[in-house]
Amino acid sequence: MNNLLAILLTLIVGLSFIIGILITKFTTKKKELTLFATGMSFAVMLGMIMIDIIPEIGENIREYPNNEKWLIIIIFTFIGMGLLKGLDSLIPHHDHNHKEQEKNKKEHNDHLFHIGFVTSISLILHNILEGISIYITAITNMNLGLMMALAVSLHNIPLGIEISAGMNATKSKEKIKRMIITLLMLSSFIGAFLLFLFKIKLNSFLICALLCTTFGMLIYIALFELLKEIWCYRKNKVTYYGILTGLVIGILMVVL
What we know:
mainly alpha; 9 helices
């Protein structure tokens, strides 16, 4: 019974993205929401890196000698960054000039779609691992699993807003958007279900390699995608409201 409840919990966690997506559907101020969501996502992503990813890497890599630790971290972090950099050459993507963005709205919207796409790819990998963690925690301690699921859901909501707001900017890629968002919502469940179905055992090296790859992906998105958007709109106070909200969510993640 605990196994089924734990799997259901991971499904609910993934569905928390819907809340963020619905928020974008019921607002008329799309530009302001996108700026707010970008700032919030930047802060939440940094919080996720500091509070979630780095401690998890440290816990899984502590059994290795120091030289091997740093080698594993550096290699797989750069693999993660390289994977997203590689996507830049495969996905239509343009570095737009914000001074001329009103003249070239399509190019700006393509850039926002690109940010939403690469963010989703990295989060799918992260959420698969997160779903496994929630599942393992819940089957041993359901109360702790519930608290963990609540904390994860809190940072899924603003990420859902940021991803949906950006990907809504380009109407011509509607099928791709629906497919990516569906995978994103189911990714936590997929991780737990595969573990349950095939009785998969992940060793510390594989978990650490996947975490470091995700770490590299999130660093790439935060520094080379989101920060670029924030800098271009640094004079707009809505961006700072988003960052402040993201910091509050990060504090809640620590408290919970």
